[in-house]
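User: I'm writing a tutorial on reading structure tokens. Could you give me a worked example: one chain, its sequence, then its tokens, then a sentence or two explaining what the tokens reveal?
Assistant: Sure. Here is the example chain.
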Amino acid sequence: MSRRNSPVPEWIPPDLPAAPGVYQFEDTLGNPIYVGKSVNLRRRVRGYFYGGGPKDDRMALMVRLARRVELFPAGTDLEAKLEEADRIERFRPAFNKALKNRSKGWYIEADLGSPFPRLRVISRPRRPRARHFGPYRGRRQPAEVVVLLEKILRLRSCSGAIRPDPDASPCLQHGIDQCTAPCVTLVGINVYRAQVREAVRLLEDPAYL
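And here are its predicted structure tokens:
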């Protein structure tokens, strides 16, 4: 099918990458109206215009109003998730199901007031010394981000306080190389807290990845 006969409008770049990342539809004034992510930007963006367009009325209207698309390729799924969440939070696009109130939603918490912090997904920030990232529209997305960060940085996923005991045996997570085991002093407090600071830096700036 030629470009002229294609249902894809002329303002969609013909060289969309078949790569993972974030896409951002904008209106005639350049305002972001919808942000999404995909493992294949080319297929996802072009898919909005085939088969008669989206069946959902809200998304069909978004497509009619869109006049430009910005692409933000990502090297990893984690980077794409963080970039998408950051743009939705920053721009509050009209066609994303944005939160009505910042106090409602889900947050990633890094309790830096704890000697051996861990990442948690919470609905209400309460610890004043903790760092909070969000809000997210649902629990699933921040939970996936936490799991990815735990795997990449080998952070503990266990609950409760840690009392390091060099005579204890490390848990299964250490056995499969998913935790550095501060609970049995295989790493010290300073090394472990440096791991958590890396997670915080990633949450602050996905491009740091």
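What the tokens reveal: Residues 170 and 184 are 6 Å apart (CA to CA). The radius of gyration is 21 Å.
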